[in-house]
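Field reference: sequence -> structure
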Amino acid sequence: MSADKVAVEPGSPVSGGDGIPAESLTPADTAGRRPQRSGKDVTSLLIRTITPVLLAVIAGALILLAMGKDPLFFYGNIINYGVMGRGWQQSLVMMAPLVLIGAGLIVVFRGKLWNLGYDAQYLLAAVLVIGFAPTLNTILPWWLTLIVLTVVGVVVGAAWTIVPAILKARYETNEIITTLMMSFIGVGIANLLVRGPFQDPDVVVPQTQSIPLVSMLPYIPGTRVHVGLIIALVVVLALHWVLTRTSFGLRLDIFGANPKTAMHVGINKSQMILILFIISGGLMGLAAAMDMLGLWGYVRSNWNPAYGAAVIPFVFLARLNVLGSIPFIAFYAIVANGGQIAAQDSELSTDFILVLVALILIFMSIIEYIGTRRDLGQSYLPAGLKTSAAQLLGRKKSS
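Structure field:
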């Protein structure tokens, strides 16, 4: 079988259907045969993606009112600090690791797999990148040091997914459990490295040495946004092309739709699982490298930005579309960046931003449930609630 062709059974969703043998289909053939979305489908998609965000904002406003706070003041400050002045630049800087982490999650999610070890993959990569930076800066040119450290981050992030990937591929071990356990272990190791071999001897606080500003990623001319954002966007665009325009993307779609069918048509299940986890972990490590080399420059013990948990709702809102996740992640970056100061001005905990993220996830689940029932031709209401509502309406009419 050639590298750019995937064998599929006649009559399957990706077969030709017009006299072209299914086994000779290429990604370009299937792309031309993808069903076009109708106006109704587009409207439904917009409702399912935008409505949860709007409902979460409204629910958040009601919570603020119940707490005696002014929601207009709070949301206005989010826009002010997250977009106005230099706020937009700070939001763009925050987007650099977020879009990479979102892309890393999308890759495994499209294969119906879960990589919940993002915290360890990010932190281990971050600590090792920063830990080796002082030594490399003394023996290599700064630009070569940045390249080597970026590769270190990618390799470390990818390597921390190997154990869960092998256990899943060979023994069908639940990857949710294994990635979470590896996350706990990795976070602990990262803290030990910060307090041990990578501890800065010149400070009392347990942290690594800081990278000099001149040795970090340069800024985009005329801004305070480092070039890591450009690197992140280029990687995401390249990944989107791979997932939508190559034979690998087609095989991934088949594998994600039905692993047993994928094996039947010649897709190596174990190999696919390993590849997806390695790509996912590598993107987590790349996110850490861009964040450390472009923004932070050091790591403190017990520090964890928990980017992965915050990004998960937005990759699902984007329907696991790498390119579609960018505007949603940009929205979150603005809310998270502006919300920190806005919360302080409103005398709120910064954790209120996480409340908004949780509300988005809740409303997304509810709307998805309702939409699925509608797609199946069922009532929007569960059977028991529908019966109760009918009885209530009947009583009102009789009265």
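Note: DSSP finds 16 helices and no strands in the chain.
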